[in-house]
Amino acid sequence: MIDKTVMDAASAVAGIPDGATVMIGGFGRAGQPVELIDALITQGATDLVIVNNNAGNGDTGLAALLAAGRVRKIVCSFPRQSDSWVFDDLYRSGRIELELVPQGNLAERIRAAGAGIGAFFSPTGVGTSLADGKENRIIDGREYVLEYPIKADYALISALRGDRWGNLVYRETARNFGPIMATAAAITVVQVDEIVPVGSLDPETVVTPGIFVDRVVAVGSRSWLRDGEFVGGVDLEGRPVDAGVPA
Amino acid sequence: MIDKTVMDAASAVAGIPDGATVMIGGFGRAGQPVELIDALITQGATDLVIVNNNAGNGDTGLAALLAAGRVRKIVCSFPRQSDSWVFDDLYRSGRIELELVPQGNLAERIRAAGAGIGAFFSPTGVGTSLADGKENRIIDGREYVLEYPIKADYALISALRGDRWGNLVYRETARNFGPIMATAAAITVVQVDEIVPVGSLDPETVVTPGIFVDRVVAVGSRSWLRDGEFVGGVDLEGRPVDAGVPA
Amino acid sequence: MTRISREQLAARIAADIPEGSYVNLGIGAPTLVADFLPDGREVILHTENGMLGMGAAPGAGDVDPDLINAGKQAVTALPGAAYFHHADSFGMMRGGHLDVCVLGAFQVSQAGDLANWSTGAPDAIPAVGGAMDLAIGAKQVFVMTDLLTRSGESKLVASCTYPLTGVGCVTRVYTDHAVFDVSADGFAVRETFGATVEELERLTGLTFNAGR
Amino acid sequence: MTRISREQLAARIAADIPEGSYVNLGIGAPTLVADFLPDGREVILHTENGMLGMGAAPGAGDVDPDLINAGKQAVTALPGAAYFHHADSFGMMRGGHLDVCVLGAFQVSQAGDLANWSTGAPDAIPAVGGAMDLAIGAKQVFVMTDLLTRSGESKLVASCTYPLTGVGCVTRVYTDHAVFDVSADGFAVRETFGATVEELERLTGLTFNAGR
């Protein structure tokens, strides 16, 4: 019997080596697999290259991983946020490397890795400093820049529900990078609110088929939904609700 | 109020000019928008370039469009089928042009058109006659061939249900090319079994968001489901059930 | 000289967005435009983090951490909404399917170049997000901005000195003083909120067409 | 000389597919392999027209025209199945996510080149479908074929004379006479169904490693 479920978050992140490239899902806090990241901090892997849209929020999740000094380099589109003080400090003091990628190129490069595309010509970033040194080509009268896949050793993502085959459904805009990161990593690790029996997810609505998934762990409601209360997120203005004390 | 629904199949295919490139959804018969194709035959447009995975089955749908002499060229991956006698005859007598594309390159080229990708390097077809004359490149030790987008003036596709915004859900493997063709055509025309009120499709399960859709027409159950009976399809061996007399 | 408020400007932009449009409103001031779309006019808002059919902000008690916009603010979903992943969302943008996006700007050049993601300051933390994808992807790129910076420099320029977001991508610039079209021979004044073309030229140091 | 039947060959291939594998069975004979997967062994079948978790053929009265395999035959969906569109399906293949595909062949060369889509006959109607994507995409490409054509020619060849499907892509060839691995220095006999290596060499005109 296929069973990709694992007992706890520690088992889920077991084996991630120092120096690994790790994709971490989420857009800001939505979809960020905080429990997996916490387990990764405990697990101890360091010198990591992290791929995420952002560079951590507040002091939890990805921000805590950065604060623990485990990240050598981050590949992202938008590190600067109202609550990215951990990254800001590391970056300003030269203790972290940044590869800034326009968000759509980031997404498409991740998808390309998962879909076996060797490289693709994107119109995004043409003529800007983020295309410096990249190959350009005019196709059908329009200028494009050549972009290469981004693949990873591991992906850590968050979904709403999964089954033991690894089929996943997501919730609202927390879907964001999960489905594409799942395709682009050698080993994809997923935290879900709930594991459901095989056959209970409608085949028409499965967003990530289990073929892309290696380990699934149920974590219950995520941290910022604890006890049905919204904690650790942002308010209507995008400011952190329980920001804590900046590092 | 946004209302993309149109009264009948004739209104749905109105305006398709002679010489147009028209994508037609479906894999064999599954997902083939037969009612729209019938309306296109009546509408009269000719000298068409058709993009479809196949080249018609039996004497209905795409096969009937071919038989009516309206198609100058077909772009597809698998024209030869047990019931492709209409195409076979046209091809052997030199009355139709064929561009044969490996199925995955066909799908990815259609997606690329919809996603604004200028071109992409594919490993599929490398070293084969279908890559003859195409640009090759070795990336990260593997050989790729450069493939360009396929876009269309119109796409005619079939879905299960749609709303007046054009949001669509599909049924089983009839989904096939519909979602990507919808993105790649200037005007996307959809036949659905049923039009449902806006808000009745779960936002988590919408496969084609309405942004890609221009016209929606309800046709009721499709031809080969007429009166709940399976007609015009293939049997367990893939042979046509009501093949009729070969042309 | 007459200037309009940020809210008036948002209303002015909203008036130019026809029913049935698919629209992305950038982070910051452009978000205001949503509040001025007339009741009953169906305009479908896209947020690049993965939704079409975005609705207004929820009540403070109804914030859902999984349902946010590109600025990471809480939003709602309208009936008819759809969720999708990032590659699909940016494919939608890059593929030219959005009718309009409204973006902020540091500078817009006469050629329609946009600079809105970096001032190039050496100690600044760079962050681009989806700005470059929006700039090159939408059928029409509207810029919403004050005409002048706080220190009185024109944001309309002969050529951008800040790092570019996109080349030749801006369709129209809505400012607190006037609305400008980007035309083949520079900015054309489309509408002013009281200022004369001569006054606008003095403020910006540019030469304008009088517009239509 | 001992040969095994097509059903025996399908069973032999099925025995080599471990639980948990994601497998695509090509049109024609390879489809038979599904019938010989042991009860209780969970192997997830992919059909490139857009499904994982494909089940067996339905009863004749339960044919569903929307639910077919790549050979356009009626199939069923298992609990745990998922549907997806063609770009996603072929991304899955091209991206190397399938563990095994089983394909038919006209010819397989010592270098692992596969020819299975065209005999190059001038009056033939060419049709390639997903064969080229499967050939380059799956982690292991198994070929299922008779060793000899009806006219007695070897399908294992020094180099293919028919149009190629893929270059250096075949992992292993299961024939009615023997199983061959494609190795760095040509075919290695992995297992025979009675024939000696010498007999196989005589039939094919090739020189083999004795294999493991």
UniProtKB/TrEMBL annotation, chains A, B:
State the similarity comment.
Belongs to the 3-oxoacid CoA-transferase subunit A family.
Fetch the Pfam families from UniProt.
CoA_trans
What species is given as this protein's source?
Microbacterium candidum
**This protein's record includes keyword Transferase:** yes
Name the record gives this protein: 3-oxoacid CoA-transferase subunit A
Q: Which keywords, in A-to-Z order, does the entry hold? A: Transferase
Top-level taxon: Bacteria
TrEMBL record, chains C, D:
Q: Which domain of life is it from?
A: Bacteria
InterPro entries cross-referenced by the UniProt entry? 3-oxoacid_CoA-transf_B, CoA_trans_fam_I, NagB/RpiA_transferase-like
Under the heading SMART domains, the entry gives: CoA_trans (SM00882)
Instruction: Return the Pfam families for the record.
Output: CoA_trans
Keywords attached to this Swiss-Prot or TrEMBL record, sorted alphabetically, are: Transferase
Q: Which parts form a coiled-coil structure per UniProt?
A: none
Q: Which family does it belong to?
A: Belongs to the 3-oxoacid CoA-transferase subunit B family.
Q: What is this protein called?
A: 3-oxoacid CoA-transferase subunit B
Query: What organism is this sequence from?
Result: Microbacterium candidum
